[in-house]
Amino acid sequence: MTTLKDIAKHANVSVATVSKYLSLDLAVKKETEARIQAAIKELGYVPNVVAKALKRKETFNVAVIVPKINNLYYSEITSGISQTLGKQHYNLFIYEVDQLNLDEGEILQLMRENMIAGIIFIGLFSDESFKESIRAAVEWEIPVVYANRYISFDGFPLLYPDLVQASKLGTAYLASKGRRRIALVHKRLPDRLLELFAKGYRQAIEEDGEPLLVAIEEGMELSESVIPALAENRIDGVFVLNELSAVYLAKALTKANIRIPEDMAVLSLGNSLISQISTPELTCIDLQNRELGIRSAEIILSQIRKQAFKPVTVLEPSIVERGSV
Amino acid sequence: MTTLKDIAKHANVSVATVSKYLSLDLAVKKETEARIQAAIKELGYVPNVVAKALKRKETFNVAVIVPKINNLYYSEITSGISQTLGKQHYNLFIYEVDQLNLDEGEILQLMRENMIAGIIFIGLFSDESFKESIRAAVEWEIPVVYANRYISFDGFPLLYPDLVQASKLGTAYLASKGRRRIALVHKRLPDRLLELFAKGYRQAIEEDGEPLLVAIEEGMELSESVIPALAENRIDGVFVLNELSAVYLAKALTKANIRIPEDMAVLSLGNSLISQISTPELTCIDLQNRELGIRSAEIILSQIRKQAFKPVTVLEPSIVERGSV
DNA sequence: TTGTATGCGTTATCAA
DNA sequence: TTGATAACGCATACAA
């Protein structure tokens, strides 16, 4: 392993000179520069980031804490993060919490041990314990970002899509296609979030009225069981607040000879590959997952660099038409 | 930040004693132990892994080099890796090469800079440049594993599914369901791999004969264009060697009023979510992606620990029946 | 423009 | 059973 010391000796200068030259905070004579560069080339010098981190008390490693990575929602966000971090020469650690089942204390310990420069928490919004993790990290002054769904702001930057707007957009779109009785189908969402969707619904529908909320479980059979409720209420358009559930519901509807979109319009929340390959392909609200990741990374980097950053970032959803509405 | 020094002072012992005690290579007196433990608790000591790495010249960080992470094939493997590494208290770095477009030199530099303990290369089998990356890493004595498809062994451990067996299994299954004229549909596979599938086909079909090989592009329209060729050859069963292509072909067949499986059996290679949510759901050959990841991680750890490891690991595929054959 | 010296937090060698 | 001390590779305060 070639070190600065070797370079210094080979170039007949001091270690400090080489170090400062490489850190760009020292202008050296043309001739010295040439000798240093020659030494670096000849000896094949590669800087040791670990030593640098120890000295500087700061790494270039950012951790992503995610429930699981083999899921298009999470991996899309993560890919966005990776893209931004890579450009800025930061490394990306991944910790899958579902797999490793780490508690808050263990996560914090891991971060501190490894001198993680910043942490991006994705998801886990149904679990309250993650909030403790974040709080603990904040307490130790580790830059933190939370990206997923709206949660109450609590002293760390938040990023999430505008679900009210998503709901409004979706509902209005269904209405514009002549749908008069629209249901919001959800997969066990917390009330806090359901209320956001209901709000968007109300904004889109001029007449007073509340949406029909239908809870659904994932899977073919479970989706079938929800069809009678839709029929009873003479629903002609569903906005399914979970992409996979939307696909299964579409399957169940087709199986029950309910045509999409003629008899029932199906709108899905989320625009991953699965809406595309569903039969029929599903019109959906795109929540901008990759962008969510990109922006999360930007904010964590701003924090690390002690620059200003927005405490709350709300992403604007958009609609992707595919004919299921 | 609390350091060993602080602990030592607080417990009235030397730094060396604390260090060795914590590394489990020193038995100390019960009383000393109690004092050390008390100090650790009181001061909230967290070991500094970075300093440890510098001293030991070895990190606990493993890098995964992957084309992209937002793809179920890659993320499933990665999740398997994450699972195994996590249990062994190793950290996982992710580098998305498609995103960052790093060349071989840059990858190696990154690995050396960060003192990466081992590298797992996934995929990129169509690209020859990755082989240079691997070779460079091997040259620098960094433990390496390659996981994806069969490539010629070249001095580093390989992991891949048994594609001949997969093809044999699939073909035999199609035949067992009464299919007499079977085509292998592939998405621009290199000849090297096509030959493996042809071999498996031959092993399954007793009579002499070669499979009809049909090249296909991904996407609905492109899949449609392949249907005439299937009709001309009176094909009654297709084994599609790419999961996404299988889904699109199934769509195209349905649209062309060709019933699955009555008129055409469709078998897919790969068992991610998309085969499950396709309409109809696709019977497939499971290539054991998660297991591939788990085993890759095990082998990289063996290398890191200077233990014996298998140079080649071949995974046995299995069939998952869903009624499309 | 360059060099000397110290220390980041840990492990490891040697001695006690 | 314990301690003193020298590295690991680098950055930086201070000198020259």
TrEMBL record, chains A, B:
It holds the Pfam family Peripla_BP_3. Gene3D superfamilies: 3.40.50.2300, lambda repressor-like DNA-binding domains. Keywords: DNA-binding, Transcription, Transcription regulation. InterPro entries: HTH_LacI, LacI/GalR-like_sensor, Lambda_DNA-bd_dom_sf, Peripla_BP_I. This is LacI family transcriptional regulator. Residues 2-56 form the HTH lacI-type domain. One of its GO terms (molecular function) is transcription cis-regulatory region binding.
